[in-house]
Every structure is written in structure tokens, then in C-alpha cells.
């Protein structure tokens, strides 16, 4: 979870204009370069960070969008913003109320 939390923290800092999207990406790469031993559960974090910044969604939601895109899977959510962003990107994200 450390890497998810870091990526989301950088996305929030970008939203608050404390850092630029480029600085967010560089900060994540700098942290990764330290080679701190962690169990890596997901190679998609860099892409999720970029999606989060570009579409102002948190990194956790961006992972769901990527799952829908990569696996052609339907993702159901009550989060309207996540549904809109996912659908705009071609991910099969649907409103939970509409899921059958």
C-alpha cells in the first residue's frame, strides 16, 4: 500500500498546485530509485498516477479504470466521477445501480 499512498499523495499535491504533474512523476521516480525493498503488487502505479493527475481522480480509482481497460472487465461504482472518467477513457465502468 505504500506505493499507492505515495502516488495518491503526489496526485493530491498536484491538484493543490503545490507541485506540477512533471514534478509528481519525477518525485515518484526518485522514490523508486531508492530501491527500498517493498512487495510490488502492481506495475500500473505510474500510469495510475498519470490518469489521476489528468482526470483529477484518486490513484485508487484510476487503478479500477485501468483494470476495466486492461481486462475488458466491467467495473461497477457509485462514484459518478469515476464512472464518467472511466467511460470517457473507454473502460467498462458502470453505475452500481445499473449493474446486472
Describe the structure.
This protein has one domain. It is mainly alpha-helical and 100 residues long. The protein starts with a helix and ends in a 5-residue tail after the last strand. Strands 1-2 form a two-stranded parallel ribbon. Helix content is 60%, strand content 8%. The mean pLDDT is 85.
Biggest beta sheet attributes: 2 strands, parallel
- Amount of helix: 55-70%
Radius of gyration: 14 Å
- How many domain regions? 1
Short summary of the structure?
With 100 residues, the protein is mainly alpha-helical.
Search tags:
mainly alpha, 5 helices, 100 residues, single chain
Topology:
Blueprint: H1 2-15, H2 21-33, H3 45-55, H4 59-71, E1 74-77, H5 80-88, E2 92-95
